[in-house]
Design goal:
The protein is about 60% helix and about 0% strand. Strand 2 and strand 3 form a beta hairpin. Helix 2 packs antiparallel against helix 3. GO terms for molecular function: oxidoreductase activity.
Amino acid sequence: MEPQPPATPSDIELRRAAGAFARPVAWRSIVQLVTSFGPFLAGCVAMHLAFGVSVWLTLALAIPTGALMVRVFIVQHDCGHGSFFASRRANALVGRLCSLCTLTPFLSWGRQHALHHAEWNNLDRSDRGSDIYSSCLTVRAYLDLSPRQRLLHRLVRHPLLANLVLPPLVFLLLYRVPFDTPQGWARERRSVHLTNAALLAFFATLTLLLGWREVLLVHVPVVTVASILGVWLFTLQHRFPGARWSGRGSWRYVDAAMDGSSWFDLPPVLQWLTGNIGFHHVHHLNQRVPNYRLAAAHEAVQRLRVVPPLGLRAGLAAARLTLWDEARGRLVRFRDARA
């Protein structure tokens, strides 16, 4: 890690405020397991039952069921951070169970995600451990690319491609191979193959019992909806109006959490479905805070340093903010890039 500027007293207070909630509560974790897996599995069953009535009804039910898969993914996310249970073994077991619903290899994704937490919103490190959703070029670096490179850079980040087409392909296909897992990560690479084997056994059995058409029209739409919603949330967690990105050795942990991670102020139902991940600034301030304690931690942190909320409308428009303009000190769209 590169040296960072020293922490200020206010930084220490903020981290202490969040740290007071960085302990799981066993009964709340168990309740969330029931209220996450239960509704999601019920949604899948309802889709299978509806298939004999109407394919269109089945596809319509994919929307709420996909949203419920996002809630299961948040449980897996917390298990990856070791924040859902006090027991490391319990986190690993539940995380692996979640991965069979989310199609996301637990160990491999978790370690890759840890890289994100090491260097988010850091312009000096944006080429390492990042993806197109949480990385950012400066306007200068973008304009220094060749015309062909600029076209490719813009194409894969176009909202229609990046937020609608690519997410299902990532979850359905890309996560089936250890595409960016280093050779030295033996356990993580093995987790990809073991997850695939378990998924193959499950869906092969389901296909023999129900037929390939029903399995395809139930589970692929669910993953499609969940991946689109999840990736959209991930996109606006660090690229939104007012977000701060730092470079040239000025990156600071607390500032990157408070000013470079969003507080997405969602209606209560959406907040429940997304497992409170809208309090993303608090999550980056202390990743060991369980998702069901993020709201309380947010209130404690907000008393020390006010973070403005990101509304639903601004969140919908945030996907187009893809470049950091060092001269203006803000994120801009591709069409706003100028030397």
